[in-house]
Amino acid sequence: MFKFFTRIFSFLNKELAEIFRQPALIVLLVLGPFLLMFLFGLGYPDENRTLRTIFVLEDQNVPPQELKLFTESINPTIAETQIEQNKANALARLARNQADLVIVVPAHAVETIQSNQKATFLIYHNEVDPFQIAYIYSIGNIYVNEVNRRILESATEQGQGSAGDLQTSLEDAIAKTQAIRQTIPPGDSGTATQVDDLLKSLNDVHDKLRQFRSMSSAVLVNPFTSDISGITPKQFGPTDFFAPAVIVLLMQHLSITLASLSIVRERRSGIMELFRVSPLTAFEILLGKFLTYLFFELILAAIISALIVGVLGIPMFGNWWHYGLAVFILLFTSLGLGFLISLISETDTQAVQYSMLLLLASIFFSGFLLDLRLMWKPIGVLAWSLPATYGIRMLQDIMLRGAPIPLLIFSGLALIGIAIFVIDWLLLRKRIEVQYSST
Amino acid sequence: MNSTKNTKPEGNVVEASELTKKFGESAAVDAVNMQVPYGTIFGFVGPSGCGKTTTVRLLTGVYAPTSGQVRVLGKNPVAFSKEDREKIGYLIQHFVLYPELTVWENLNFAASFYGVNPFRRGHLRKLLDFVELRKDSNKRASQLSGGMQRRLSLAATLVHNPPLLFLDEPTTGIDPILRQKFWDYFKELQKQGHTLFITTQYVGEAAYCDLVGVMYQGKLLMVETPENLRRKAFGGDVISVRTTEGIRYDNRQRIEKLPFVRGKVKILSDQEIDVITDEASTAMPLLVEDLNAQRLNIESIEQKSVPFDDVFVKLIEQEKVRDV
Q1: Per residue in A312-370, pLDDT tens?
Q2: Rounded distance, CA B212 to CA B197, Å?
Q3: Does A6 contact B at CB distance below 8 Å?
Q4: A283: pLDDT confidence band, cut at 50, 70 and 90?
Q5: Going from the N-terminus, what domains does chain B have, and what CATH number goes with each?
Q6: A361 and A281 in a common domain
Q7: Interface pTM (ipTM) of the complex?
Q8: Closest-CA residue in chain A for B102?
Q9: Beta carbons of A14 and B92 less than 8 Å apart
Q10: Which residue intervals of B91-206 are DSSP H helices?
Q11: Which of A374, B127, B231, B254 has the fewest beta carbons closer than 10 A?
Q12: Which of A6, A262, A265, A281 to probe by mutation at the B interface, max B CB count within 10 Å?
């Protein structure tokens, strides 16, 4: 048993010495992720993109200055507005990237509406990014809804003004009707009843008119509103949101890269033949390497996390022990994947290519870029075979929601990690066992 | 350096019988039979690609034989236990240690994976003294010369003090002076009780071995002592004779008819011939007597130590003739 531990820890000294022989690598591994996050935070402040907009006014009746003020008061994201009389010119400028948006104001809008037809704002953009296109759709809808709302409010206010005159006339009519009611002889009950009914109806209409006039036009036009609140402890900016995912991707990639090069290099150098003749077993080699890299990467993860939370101010609402456990299982499984790559690759280049493919897959399928709930379910199987998918879920829950470690996710990743370890062990055993093959 | 704790057992440390390893249809090792006694230096000589490394791999359990039997330390190498493996030191043909680690770190790593006691600093220092690398212990392996890397590999092979050493071409690619030094190490190791199985393509190194196996195209042509190899190559001991006057045809015919002389006399010059005899020590006085009787004045007479390169070439030629 003593020799077992001596053999396992032989790798601790060896691998760490190899890593620490490259101080530039250590600096890169610690400062790299921190600087990336710092620059990401600087590069993406929590502000919406403003859109340089050209309005096309073919209708000479609309005063341009009023339109500009009106528009900018509606939506501050529509900024740096310019006015063009010619639609073709405006579109040419859009194509030359001199504007982000062209809004063609409908000509003769009043006449169109009065003829019981909708007037259409034509909105043009030159985007290719689907997220930016969605953003412009949303800004366009907000703009048109706001224009409609303001027109309705204005119309309602005009209606309320007219209703005041109507109310005066109605009060006059009620007074005159009451006077008529006084003149009806007591025996003429039929006429009296009819006049009373008329008076009641007039009073009802009067009450309704009074109520209509007393109400705010904004409430009348937009009676419902919404108030959205998250139950998370904070409203997060993009840097906050992406920080846990970036930590996960970096730690996964680092583990996979280090591990994937580890065994493939030894196989190519020929030292595996020496291991094969020595008392070392595949289990001892694998366990030794796992423990070494886990030890090194846990320290690295602790430093990176401390810098990101302590210096960059990324929120950490959860429990640090849960965080540590999540990072541990992420590293364990990622190392397993790295060793698997190392065992199936014939060259360093092949191992690096596999690692890069895994990184790309993780960026696209782990929920780093797109929400997993949008994914087609069968492809979800691929997503949930990547350690990063589990890691991002766990770290986002712990850091941003302040939730405990999600047990189901944790157990799923642990199971995958153990399964990969067993596969690695069997493959390495096959690699260093006696070669019976005659080819 | 400590001598091996194992007392020298009787018998053979390696026994191979009809040992064959095929890769596809081609036999890299073809029906090899050999015995290596404990405590010997066994030289395995042959040209590059003749099957030496494959044989070593069969003996160390890296390869399983296609057919035949092999016993090393009394066991089948394929079924070696950890304890059996601890008794073996294996020096691979090329440098396989870690270039980024220092001499000390590489040696310490090798000691760890052989499970050597962690309190081993003294032992490692002695090993470095033995291979004369003590003052370079902080140098990275990548900064060492080829010869120093070989010495580091040798130290790593000896780190767990194994009684049986397989050294695959330990002297390839290093200068003759350092090669001599390596053989001094090997002799020292033999004195300490180790058994050494050494492959080499420098046939001259056969002279340092107790037993030499000659390998050619996967076949083990013979296993002999160096002297017997010479005899086998030339049909006996070679005695070189130089006279002060010319050796005539009738002189040579008379010599060839002597009972202890084998075959034809080889003419080197008018006054110099090589005579092949059964046993040089007994033949030489009789030859002197005969030459005197023929009134030939002997300038010099000695047993000729034929270079092993010539011995090897002769043996290969004989093998080719046999094949034809």
Answers
A1: 889 999 999 999 999 999 999 999 999 999 999 988 899 999 999 999 999 999 988 88
A2: 10
A3: yes
A4: very high
A5: 12-230 (3.40.50.300), 235-323 (3.30.70.100)
A6: yes
A7: 0.82
A8: A17
A9: no
A10: 103-113, 121-130, 146-158, 176-191
A11: A374
A12: A6
